[in-house]
Design brief:
85% of the residues lie in helices and 0% in strands. It is built from 7 helices and no strands. The two termini are 34 Å apart.
């Protein structure tokens, strides 16, 4: 029973963290495509957080910036085994990005219902990233304690 508990906690942790990493890498790279840039343009235009991107860059440039941020945050989260502090920063940064995405539900007038349904899943991803950040901070504290004892 204890072995199953330990295995399920470890397996769940890996699946949660790295599925979000994969998600952000895939969707980050998608931002470099014209169809994705066109799809997010109305979301950016009405966002109180990201409206400025469309003011300083064209549609594709704004999408590219978001893609780079998503990929960098995902790589930071993935660094958990060897850099828990970096992973914590990436996790909380990803959580902030997800809050921004969720805000599209209330800031975008006449949002396509299919897009709104797709965005709602970010609530679950937000919970995973908040957990990931807290877990990484705990690992960082444990690592610092071990170094102090050595």
């Amino acid at each position: 029973m204890i072995a199953l508990q330990k295995w399920s906690l470890l397996a769940g942790q890996i699946v949660m963290r790295y599925s979000v990493v994969l998600f952000f890498i895939v969707f980050g790279f998608a931002k470099f495509t014209a169809p994705e840039a066109a799809a997010i343009e109305p979301l950016l235009a009405h966002s109180p957080f990201l409206f400025w991107l469309t003011a300083i860059a064209d549609r594709q440039g704004a999408s590219d910036v978001i893609g780079v941020v998503e990929i960098v945050l995902a790589l930071m989260v993935a660094a958990r085994p060897f850099a828990p502090r970096l992973s914590a920063v990436g996790s909380f940064g990803t959580a902030a990005a997800l809050v921004t995405t969720l805000s599209f539900l209330v800031t975008t007038p006449s949002i396509n219902p299919a897009l709104a349904s797709f965005i709602v899943k970010d609530l679950t991803l937000l919970g995973v990233m908040i957990w990931s950040g807290g877990e990484a901070l705990g690992a960082m504290r444990t690592r610092m304690s071990r170094l102090a004892l050595a």
